[in-house]
Fold:
Amino acid sequence: MQGLEVRGLSKRFGGLTVSEDIDFDLMPGDRKALIGPNGAGKSTFSNLVTGILTPTSGTIRFDGSDIGRLNEAQRVRLGIAKTFQITTLFRDLTVRENLRLPILERERRGFGFIGRANGHTAIEAEVDDLLGQFALGGLADRKVADLAYGQQRLVELALTLALKPRVLILDEPAAGVPSSETHLIVDAIERLPEDLAVLIIEHDMDLVFRVARQIVVLVQGRILTEGTPEDIAADAQVRELYLGGGHD
Structure:
């Protein structure tokens, strides 16, 4: 099977079960959202998929191969990447320099070309493509520290995409972003490559319903239900738990 396949995934910390018997698929082109209250186990699930945590039981397969023994860096090289709730950027470098770093790492060239990579036109062309895709061209030579927070999140998303992932996990991409800038995140998600498998972990229900084609609801480490945005909006239990004001 192409894509990501999770079966019977569970994680326990001593006597505390934070993920229990989760079955989950993420195929090329998917746009899925994982929602649930704080403490539901959303970040734990993403950390299990990316190799930050080791499951207590269950399997994680990618393109049919068991990746349970692979660490985080090995999974990134396979094509599984994740953005984080807090931006992890080099604030004293420019946007262009930040985007160059993951490309150099991916190409195993080292960080000797943080400055303009003269003679490496393919690298510069890829940086320019990312700047264009995320509407960052006008900010290319500004330091990240000088950008608005929503713009920083765009840089982080572009940086992650520079790794050329096949599975992209967006961990609360709108966290801390003013509502006036949320459209930047929505627009960026909508411009992602069509064949990229995307999982969005998010509390912002407006964003979720705008970009997700399937929504999975997690409660106390277990999947409560899943379906289209229309299905989820019509589910009385979900509406009471999350969409009626209790989803935060």
About this structure: The chain has one domain: 4-243.
